[in-house]
């Protein structure tokens, strides 16, 4: 409990300092060792899997989901073994790097953008053109027939 002055008692202050020092030591230990471990153990296997795929299939979720899942699980298991928090800033930066290298040309949905087939695209082009021409012809025809208009 805080005293009237808003300051922690000496015993609690010391305990808080010890806890913060321990957490920062764990975080500092996780930073360099954890980063190296996930690059060595996890990224190496992922690189092999991706190089086995044709580069044109990197954006195909069906082709990469298993390797990507293994990469994610690997980063988690390494964090667990090293008593590091997961997810953490290093994992976020690691996956940003992976995405920038392997998935930078992929659309957000995971599918490459392409035009629909002509049998689907055709009606969406032809129908508005035909309707526009018919409406224009109707207006011209109606404007030439002035009898009956009051």
From TrEMBL:
This is Receptor activity-modifying protein 1. Belongs to the RAMP family. GO terms for molecular function: coreceptor activity. Its main location: membrane. The chain crosses the membrane at residues 120-141. Residues 1-29 form the signal peptide. Keywords: Cell membrane, Disulfide bond, Membrane, Receptor, Signal, Transmembrane, Transmembrane helix, Transport. It is a single-pass type I membrane protein. One of its GO terms (biological process) is cellular response to hormone stimulus. Gene3D superfamilies: Receptor activity modifying family. Accessory protein that interacts with and modulates the function of G-protein coupled receptors including calcitonin gene-related peptide type 1 receptor (CALCRL) and calcitonin receptor (CALCR). Required for the transport of CALCRL to the plasma membrane. Together with CALCRL, form the receptor complex for the calcitonin gene-related peptides CGRP1/CALCA and CGRP2/CALCB. Together with CALCR, form the AMYR1 receptor complex for amylin/IAPP and CGRP1/CALCA.
């Amino acid at each position: 409990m805080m005293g009237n002055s808003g300051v922690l008692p000496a015993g609690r202050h010391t305990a808080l300092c010890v806890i913060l020092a321990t957490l920062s030591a764990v975080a500092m230990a996780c930073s360099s060792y954890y980063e190296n471990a996930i690059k060595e153990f996890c990224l190496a296997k992922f690189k092999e899997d991706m190089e086995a795929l044709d580069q044109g299939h990197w954006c195909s979720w069906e082709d990469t989901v298993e390797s990507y899942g293994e990469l994610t699980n690997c980063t988690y298991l390494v964090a667990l073994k090293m008593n590091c928090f997961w997810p953490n800033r290093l994992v976020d930066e690691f996956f940003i790097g992976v995405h920038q290298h392997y998935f930078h040309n992929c659309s957000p949905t995971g599918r490459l953008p392409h035009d629909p087939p002509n049998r689907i695209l055709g009606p969406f082009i032809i129908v508005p053109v035909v309707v526009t021409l018919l409406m224009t012809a109707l207006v011209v025809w109606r404007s030439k027939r002035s009898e009956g208009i009051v």
